[in-house]
Specification:
2 domains, 0% strand
Length: 80
Protein backbone atom coordinates (compact mmCIF):
# COMPACT_ATOMS: atom_id res chain seq x y z
CA UNK A 1 0.00 0.00 0.00
CA UNK A 2 2.21 2.80 -1.28
CA UNK A 3 1.66 6.30 0.01
CA UNK A 4 3.61 9.45 -0.52
CA UNK A 5 5.14 11.14 2.47
CA UNK A 6 3.08 14.15 3.43
CA UNK A 7 -0.30 12.85 2.25
CA UNK A 8 -1.28 12.01 5.82
CA UNK A 9 1.17 14.20 7.72
CA UNK A 10 2.89 11.04 9.01
CA UNK A 11 6.14 9.63 7.69
CA UNK A 12 5.89 6.29 5.91
CA UNK A 13 7.39 4.34 8.83
CA UNK A 14 4.85 5.75 11.33
CA UNK A 15 1.97 5.12 8.97
CA UNK A 16 3.03 1.54 8.36
CA UNK A 17 3.47 0.97 12.10
CA UNK A 18 -0.03 2.30 12.73
CA UNK A 19 -1.45 0.04 10.01
CA UNK A 20 0.30 -3.00 11.49
CA UNK A 21 -0.88 -2.24 15.02
CA UNK A 22 -4.45 -1.73 13.81
CA UNK A 23 -4.24 -5.03 11.90
CA UNK A 24 -2.96 -6.97 14.92
CA UNK A 25 -5.76 -5.56 17.07
CA UNK A 26 -8.36 -6.43 14.43
CA UNK A 27 -6.97 -9.92 13.85
CA UNK A 28 -7.01 -10.56 17.59
CA UNK A 29 -10.68 -9.59 17.72
CA UNK A 30 -11.71 -11.45 14.55
CA UNK A 31 -9.61 -14.37 13.33
CA UNK A 32 -11.54 -14.55 10.06
CA UNK A 33 -10.00 -11.38 8.60
CA UNK A 34 -7.32 -11.83 5.89
CA UNK A 35 -3.91 -13.14 6.88
CA UNK A 36 -1.89 -10.07 5.89
CA UNK A 37 -2.28 -6.39 6.73
CA UNK A 38 -2.17 -5.54 3.02
CA UNK A 39 -5.12 -7.82 2.17
CA UNK A 40 -7.05 -6.49 5.15
CA UNK A 41 -6.40 -2.85 4.27
CA UNK A 42 -7.43 -3.43 0.64
CA UNK A 43 -10.94 -4.14 1.94
CA UNK A 44 -11.35 -0.56 3.19
CA UNK A 45 -12.17 2.65 1.46
CA UNK A 46 -9.65 5.45 1.95
CA UNK A 47 -10.11 7.37 5.19
CA UNK A 48 -8.25 9.99 7.12
CA UNK A 49 -6.08 8.54 9.84
CA UNK A 50 -6.86 11.60 11.93
CA UNK A 51 -10.52 10.53 12.11
CA UNK A 52 -9.79 7.11 13.62
CA UNK A 53 -6.48 7.55 15.43
CA UNK A 54 -7.93 9.26 18.55
CA UNK A 55 -10.39 6.40 19.12
CA UNK A 56 -7.71 3.76 18.55
CA UNK A 57 -5.37 5.48 20.99
CA UNK A 58 -8.20 5.62 23.54
CA UNK A 59 -8.92 1.90 23.10
CA UNK A 60 -5.24 1.03 23.29
CA UNK A 61 -4.91 3.10 26.47
CA UNK A 62 -7.83 1.28 28.04
CA UNK A 63 -6.23 -2.05 27.14
CA UNK A 64 -2.88 -1.04 28.64
CA UNK A 65 -4.61 0.24 31.79
CA UNK A 66 -6.45 -3.07 32.16
CA UNK A 67 -3.17 -4.99 31.75
CA UNK A 68 -1.43 -2.83 34.38
CA UNK A 69 -4.30 -3.30 36.86
CA UNK A 70 -4.29 -7.06 36.26
CA UNK A 71 -0.52 -7.23 36.87
CA UNK A 72 -0.86 -5.17 40.07
CA UNK A 73 -3.63 -7.46 41.34
CA UNK A 74 -1.57 -10.55 40.45
CA UNK A 75 1.49 -9.15 42.23
CA UNK A 76 -0.55 -8.32 45.35
CA UNK A 77 -2.03 -11.83 45.42
CA UNK A 78 1.40 -13.42 44.93
CA UNK A 79 2.83 -11.58 47.94
CA UNK A 80 0.12 -12.84 50.30
Amino acid sequence: MARKRGESGLDLFSLEMFENIAYVMAKHADGSIPNTPEEWLDGFNTFSIYQVLPKLIELWGLNVQTDVEAKKNFAQQSVK
